[in-house]
From TrEMBL:
KW Transmembrane (keyword) present: yes
One Pfam family recorded for the sequence: RDD
The entry's keywords: Membrane, Transmembrane, Transmembrane helix
UniProt subcellular location: Membrane
Chief place of localization: membrane
Domain named VanZ-like: residues: 50-186
Membrane-protein topology: Multi-pass membrane protein
Organism this protein belongs to: Glutamicibacter mishrai
Chain ranges of the RDD domain: 211-353
PANTHER family: INTEGRAL MEMBRANE PROTEIN, MEMBRANE PROTEIN-RELATED
Record protein name field: VanZ family protein
Length: 372
């Protein structure tokens, strides 16, 4: 029983960490594609993440401790005889009888392979909006990838195959995905299907609300933080592997500056007149009315507003120190508080940066419709 529980625990933990790190990016993609967020679509995406980590846990773990640990006689033998499990069934029935066979490892290993891939078929139909054939193809492709990964010792990471690559597993897994795809049409799985919304580019413009603008700021913050973390983490890993050393000024100033330039500055200067996060939320900076703002005013708004706040926050927070600029950190915190209060109390929803630059926001599709 314990061998069944711990992979599930690892799957839940892995999915939680993944969604915690990448969840906001998935929401940004969802909003950009569909023009709104859907709880049903979000829950289904989280379900798919948990299932993906579960599939990995049950088929790949535990890993050998060393590259040579799997190189023992009898370990990782390839089984290439289709239908060999039927001989195992016959031998088990002869030895244990039907009652013993019903609870035997031989039977439940095959059933588990089927059950493990049934959710893939369900998700193929409901989440990916495919059909039974789609579920079968995905099941076959996923199972073949798993079997080849086991056969090659994770593509050469280990010197020998550390698990049995079994053609019967390929057959059972594909069959499980097929059964899941058939079951997916039952009404009970209807909640896994998100709303049938078309391309957000062709949707009607919607009113810009405070929550929508706040969501755009969340997207911008996530994109910036994720990019800075990815770049600095990669450089640190290269240094630990013997590559060139990186200095603190590069890590704590220049990298945030470059990231903020590409997330806030450059997009604000382009004809889209909006940061990357604002574009995900279908916003565009205007001159206070319904016209596209000039590049200078859009840039000024970004620098005075969330773009400047994000940059100052990035350089006042270090990976190697608690706060290299404690005074700056205090000033940034105070400015964030003042901006937040102004944003929430302003009846015109302009915000502090909007008031200073005389700019506002509208749904970018309204300008696209008018200009075309």
């Amino acid at each position: 029983m314990q061998t069944m529980i711990w992979p599930a625990a690892i799957a839940v933990l892995g999915a939680a960490l993944f969604l915690g790190a990448a969840g906001i990016f998935l929401l940004a993609v969802q909003y950009r594609r569909h023009g709104r967020l859907s709880w049903r679509r979000t829950i289904t995406t989280a379900t798919a993440a948990i299932y993906g980590f579960g599939l990995f846990s049950y088929t790949m773990l535990p890993l050998p401790e060393t590259r040579e640990a799997a190189c023992f006689t009898g370990l990782g033998i390839t089984q290439t005889d289709p239908g060999h499990f039927l001989y195992d069934f016959r031998a088990s029935i002869a030895e244990l009888g039907l009652r013993g066979f019903a609870t035997s490892f031989v039977l439940w290993q095959v059933l588990f392979n089927i059950i493990l891939f049934m959710p893939l078929g369900i998700l193929a139909v409901r989440w990916l909006r495919g059909n039974i054939f789609t579920g079968m193809v995905l099941g076959f492709a996923a199972s073949l990838t798993i079997e080849l990964t086991q056969y090659t010792g994770i593509w050469g990471l280990y010197n020998c195959a550390y698990r049995v690559a079994d053609v019967d597993d390929l057959i059972m897994n594909t069959g499980g995905a097929f059964i899941g795809a058939v079951f997916a049409y039952l009404p009970i799985f209807g909640f896994l299907t998100g709303p049938k919304e078309g391309d957000a580019r062709y949707a009607a413009p919607r009113r810009v609300t405070r929550s929508r603008r706040a969501l755009a700021n969340v997207f911008d913050a996530a994109i910036t933080t994720g990019a800075v973390f990815a770049i600095t983490g990669t450089l640190s890993l290269i240094e630990r592997l013997g590559g060139p050393a990186t200095n603190e000024r590069l890590m704590n100033f220049w990298i945030p500056l470059v990231v903020v330039f590409f997330v806030f500055v450059l997009p604000s200067l382009s004809p889209g007149r909006a940061t990357l996060g604002q574009r995900c939320a279908w916003l565009i900076v205007t001159d206070g009315g319904t016209n596209r703002a000039s590049a200078g005013r859009a840039l000024s708004r970004s620098i005075i507003g969330f773009g400047g706040i994000t940059f100052l926050f990035q350089i006042s927070t270090s990976l190697t120190e608690v706060s290299p600029y404690p005074v700056l950190n205090m000033l940034v915190t105070a400015y964030i508080a003042v901006s937040a209060v102004f944003f929430l109390s302003d009846g015109h929803q302009q915000g502090l940066a909007g008031k200073a630059t005389g700019t506002g926001f509208i749904d970018r599709r309204a300008i696209s419709i008018r200009e075309h």
